[in-house]
Write a structure and sequence with these properties.
Blueprint (H helix, E strand, L loop, with lengths): L5 E6 L20 E2 L3 E2 L2 H9 L4 E5 L5 H7 L13 E5 L14 H6 L2 H7 L3 E6 L2 E3 L3 H10 L4 E7 L9 E5 L5 E6 L8 E10 H10 L8 H11 L4 E5 L4 E3 L3 H10 L27 E2 L4 E3 L2 E2 L4 E2 L2 E3 L2 E2 L4 E2 L4 E3 L2 E2 L4 E2 L4 E3 L1 E3 L4 E2 L4 E4 L17 E3 L4 E2 L4 E3 L2 E4 L11 E2 L4 E3 L6
Parallel strand pairs: 1-4, 1-6, 4-5, 8-12, 14-17, 15-18, 16-19, 17-20, 18-21, 19-22, 20-23, 21-24, 22-25, 23-26, 24-27, 25-28, 26-29, 27-30, 28-31, 30-32, 31-33
Antiparallel strand pairs: 2-3, 6-11, 7-13, 8-11, 9-10, 9-11
């Protein structure tokens, strides 16, 4: 039997429904980020930078792009004969076929994978956060405290604490109490959904809770360990960490990359972020173009103006087109004479000539006000926008749209245009 000190289990099955049309055809961890990466590149790069060379990636919702992106793990140096990266989709068992029904249930269904390595410790990670963290430092903390479970926590403003799972600790970082999204939080230490378990403790808890429906770490496993006298400690993290679960936070995190002194630095030598890169030609910037404070991906051709934006690989920006405060993903074509203000345009979308995005007032979206907000225009992948139309704020579009879908040539603020067969 192979012995590994610590293996990682990376939960990447989430749909990310608050990202709306961005995740209608792709799992949230596979959504593009920073012009070059996908969200899952961050925890995977953290693993290899922290010396964790055995990672199980649990997929479920729309896994195709995620699976092909990870492949056999070459970009992260995770193509190993022993260990490396393994994709773990739900599979049919002899008695029944089960989807993963909760974060802990997903891990339980892969007990045999973990047993294969007989680790001393198991690191549980979520595939949809943007951050850099040395998990080895957290493991040292776990060992130094003789802990059974270590939970990574970070201080959040007290007024935001009710959005998170909150831990209360004594002066030795030992966790004495939990509050799941409390109305009146007793502390501001929020759980980051990153856990290190001593393997025996994790295994015992998962087996004990195997019949619990929608079995989840925060709601079931952690309280079970606590109630059964296990030692739980809080590992405080003070670096950059962003849950990009909403369109607003996703847009913000991208925009923070282009600050003069970025809060999150992609250019650090000693903590590289690895990704699967395609072989594409260099970018081309025409003589008439203007680019200010932006990230421009490989293979992109710019003939217009780009300000404060994150542009992916293989994008074409036409003559006379002005793009501001926007995210444009791989392979999108923005034709001549367009104005794009505060938009997120997903992969392989074509925007016709003289289109204006982001006009009018900031009116809440009628269909999903909590999703399509922040004044953004959000366009799903492979969409087509016809020439000469105007599109308002807090709008969502998905599919191949035609001029007749825009009464008077306008999609007003707060409207949603999802073509038949597309998912909202």
């Amino acid at each position: 039997m192979i012995k590994k000190e610590m293996i990682a289990m990376l939960l990447a099955g989430g749909q990310g429904s608050r990202l709306g049309v961005l995740t209608s055809k792709v799992a949230k961890p596979a959504v593009a980020f920073g012009g070059k990466y996908r969200i899952i590149d961050f925890p995977l790069s953290n693993c290899i930078n922290s010396g964790v060379d055995t990672v199980g990636v649990l997929t479920q919702y729309q896994p195709l792009r995620l699976n092909s992106h990870i492949g056999i793990g070459i970009p992260w140096d995770l193509d190993r004969n022993i260990g490396g990266v393994t994709i773990l989709p739900p599979y049919e068992k002899s008695s029944n076929s089960e989807w993963y029904t909760g974060t802990a249930n997903a891990i339980y269904q892969n007990l045999s994978y973990m047993e294969n390595y007989n680790p001393e410790y198991v690191l549980i990670l979520s595939g949809d956060h943007i951050y850099k963290m040395d998990y080895e430092v957290m493991l040292d903390f776990h060992k130094a405290n003789n802990a059974d479970v270590s939970i990574a926590v970070m201080p959040v403003p007290m007024e935001e604490a009710s959005r998170f799972g909150i831990v209360i600790t004594d002066e030795n970082s030992k966790i004495t109490e939990f509050q799941e999204k409390p109305e009146h939080p007793k502390s501001n230490l929020a759980s980051m959904g990153i856990y290190i378990f001593s393997w025996k403790v994790l295994k015992e808890a998962l087996i004990a809770l195997k019949d619990q429906s929608n079995c989840d770490f925060g709601k079931h496993v952690i309280p079970y360990c606590h109630e059964n006298g296990r030692k739980l400690v809080a590992y405080e993290y003070n670096g950059y960490w962003k849950d990009v679960g909403t369109l607003g936070s996703y847009w913000e995190a991208n925009m923070e990359l282009i600050d003069i002194i970025p809060e999150f630095n992609l250019y650090e030598e000693f903590w590289k972020i690895y990704t699967s890169s395609e072989i594409i030609p260099p970018q081309y910037i025409s003589a008439d173009s203007t680019i200010v404070k932006s990230i421009i991906g490989d293979g992109t051709e710019v003939y217009g103006e780009v300000y404060n934006s994150v542009i992916g690989a293989g994008v074409t920006i036409g003559k006379g087109t002005v793009i501001r405060d926007s995210i444009i993903m791989k392979g999108a074509v923005i034709k001549d004479g367009c104005t794009v203000d505060k938009a997120i345009i997903a992969e392989n979308t074509v925007v016709g000539e003289n289109v204006v995005l982001g006009i009018g007032e900031d009116i809440p979206n009628k269909m999903k006000p909590s999703v399509y907000s922040f004044g953004l225009v959000t366009i799903g992948e492979n969409s087509v926008i016809p020439a000469d139309v105007k599109i308002g704020k807090n709008t969502a579009i998905s599919g191949k749209t035609a001029p007749e879908d825009y009464p008077g040539g306008v999609l007003a603020s707060g409207e949603t245009l999802i073509k038949a067969g597309e998912l909202a």
